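Write out the 3D structure for:
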Amino acid sequence: MIEYSGENRLMRGKLKQFWGFLILLLVTVIYLIVFFTDFFAEKSEVKEIYFADRVTAAHKILIEKYNRENSNNVKVVPIDFPNFDFSTNERKELLARSLRGRGDGIDLFAVDLIWVSRFAKWCEPLSKYFANNEMERILNSALESCYFEGELVAVPLDLVQGIMYYRTDILDSLPNADQIKAKIENNITWEEFLKINTEIDKKDNFYIYPAADYEGLICSFMELVLSLKPDYFEENGFNMNTPEAKKSLKLLVDLIHRYNATPQIVSEFTEIPSYEYFIENDGLFIRGWPSYDKDFEQTPFESKKESYLRKAPIPHFKDGKPASVFGGWNLMVSRFSDKKEEVIDFIKFLLSDESQELFYKEAGYYPVIEKFYTDENNLQKYPELIGVRKLIASGVHRPAHVEYTRYSEIMSRYFESAIRKEITVEEALIKSTNAIQLDQLIPKD
């Protein structure tokens, strides 16, 4: 019995060890199954990047391509701001409101290049994500607007600048049409340009420019004042009470009230209404952006008339230099995003040679890649790039200042009043300067 009991205890011990081993093995197997299930599920989870911009045909093509190529890992979800539904100011305020609330789901967004300073506090610094050779590919003209206090906080997506369109069918009907074309395509002065107006019967609809109380009016003003003094803001800051500012605003007023070259109604126009008026009323010249011929492809404007449009540099003062304001959109990464690496990968995709060419073909935006303008294949496909490159050389930036958009709103309010003849040019300049100086005394959050 004793012998049997000892053997029995031994057997029971071995049995316990066996069952213990099985239980341990089972737990291990279950753990491994759960671990690898979670592991692979995590690896195969598709991360969604929310990208806020005006979604053009080029955006759609590129987003779809990127999503196909990364279908197992990343999906870019566009948040669209259509031109006809959102003004640039409305878009700016919606983005700012969202980022104040820690992003509200936005990972990547495009900003007008003059907004970079304002949005910098909500954005991820980008220097660590881009090697020197990647940065050297980008046009200096485009990259200049991407820094805030010496830190790279944005990268350019595309570039535009102010240009003038004209109707070839109307111009060809005028005496000396070839001579006029040669002049306007070779940096005509305002003095020569307005002389043409006196020689032809095109009263009021000779030159259209948007002059409502918004940034587009300030772009026209900047092109004039920076033509006269390229370092105006370095020397004067936002003091508008200067001879250069007076001459510039006076021309915008005189185009309407002295030269009868521009209709009074432009004081109600932003870009789209000014273009619509220009087409419907057979205007001869209009101040615009090089993307207009793509921006309005799906609009109900008269395509026959649009087919006669050609591009030329904006006139400049005789005692100044050719100058056209840069515009365009830069990309910024929300510092609240938890998908920064994926966002950076998508940005680099948008900056590839192929993507940048597509933006040019489909949306009319200038590529921000330097070699696009020197590559022989591109020059053969797009011979107009020679003229674009020349135009870029005359491009000027609006002042980079954290409060620029606020000061611009002050200027446009008073400048529009001068254009409407509600106040004088001198009053508009003094009032805007005083309002900006007062604003500078108010503490900002």
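The two ends are 91 Å apart (CA to CA).
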